[in-house]
Amino acid sequence: MIKVTFVAHDGHRFPVEIGEGLTAREAALFNDVPGIDGDCGGQCACATCHVQVDPAWIDLVGHLAADSMEADLLQFAEGTTAESRLACQIRLDAGLDGLVLHVPEQQY
Ligand code: FES
What we know:
It is built from three helices and five strands. The radius of gyration is 12 Å and the shape is globular. The site of FE2/S2 (inorganic) cluster (FES) has 13 residues, from loops.
């Protein structure tokens, strides 16, 4: 199991566990983490799964590829930062065990 902690804008922490190979979107939805809706089913088409990767983890997760569909979509999300990613595009493996993701205030 992979541990992921979602941190709300008010500092409330939601630690969850999920099987390897699933996505951070699924980690949030399967555990009722508020602020992550994932409306498009993980198809990179809605941006309702916007998260900000904790700075300590961004190099492991990987920065947004500038010319990607994910980057195009995040242009329309509010509260984006250099650490912004779509949770549906973060596939969880053993190297990301302990990952910390922040849910932007605008997601609520
Ligand atoms: S779930 Fe729609 S973009 Fe991630």
